[in-house]
Amino acid sequence: MNRERWATLKSLFETVLELEGPERDDFLADLAEADSDLHAELLALLAADATEDSAVDRDPGQLLDGLDEAVEVEGGVTDRGDTDAHLGSRIGPWRVDARIGEGGMGVVYRARRADGAFDQSVALKVLRRGMDTEGILARFRSERQILASLEHPNIARLVDGGMTDAGLPWFTLEYVQGRHLTAYCDEQRLSVDARLRLFETVCAAVQYAQERLVVHRDLKPSNVLVADDGTVKLLDFGIARVLSESGADATGITTVVGAPRALTLAYAAPEQIEGGTITTATDVYALGTILYELLTGRRPFAGDTPIDVLKNVVEAVFLPPRGLVSSVPRALEAICLRAMEVEPDRRYATAAELADDLERYLADL
User: Fold this and answer.
1) Least CB-packed of 24, 240, 335, 343 within 10 Å?
2) Active-site position among 218, 229, 283, 356
3) Positive or negative torsion for Cα 119, 228, 96, 145
4) Single pTM value for the model
5) 61 three-class SS
């Protein structure tokens, strides 16, 4: 990106931050019609503005190089150089054994019950030090409350929660030792039908959440673990939202205009990227991208840069499954493509509707 284009993009960025509601939507729509490339770059800039320092003050090359990470880790850039004082310490009744994962706002550890009451291993998530802003605390508390409301055999179960001595919130989940969904299917060399059976289980877990008005918003293979015995567990409700009966966001977390969106670009629905209305169909889109990957072994959207990927998502530029794997049955391709429609009202409305069509396919109907 040359300096002249960067100056234009920076000016547009500063302008759009001043707009709200319909005015902002109209501005972005007009830009998309006038210059689709610039529109995609502006959306990418908004998504990548994920640090306390404004993205427009950074070098454009540095910004674009960091876009993947900025949108992958819950809307924030992970500080991988922090010292880990939690290892070996006790948090509540739990002794922290090992660090097993991290995101933009929290770190996940394997921990074991340390008070002698009984023996149990858990996954313990604690808010990252320095991330205890009002908005992130609200998101963390929301994740904990959502998990407390979900009791399903294929959703990781909340066990405990509290505050550390330093005042950081934490909670524990049942510890699931398994592999990501796509990795498990590949390692086990599962047939298409066997993959679909596992995927139907994922749909059932998502449908259970949807019936309780919970939209996950970050469905992807790495958030679905499969144990050695084939048990599926859906994880990470860190950016989930609770909808009201009318479909509006009832989580109580305020989204600041111009703030970065918490999402994973390769699996995010177009309305997530564009700041549109989130519904159960948003999770259906992500399920469609997972199904695509299970059928073809590849993510649907490619590109030389994150901006290329973003533009391809918004404009639905990708090869149909049979364009990569000719043996994919046409009926399965049709199901996958319907789940991945750009317009939400053209997709399956719920995970159950998607699973029903897959069941009809498996039954030769």
Assistant:
1) 343
2) 218
3) negative
4) 0.75
5) helix
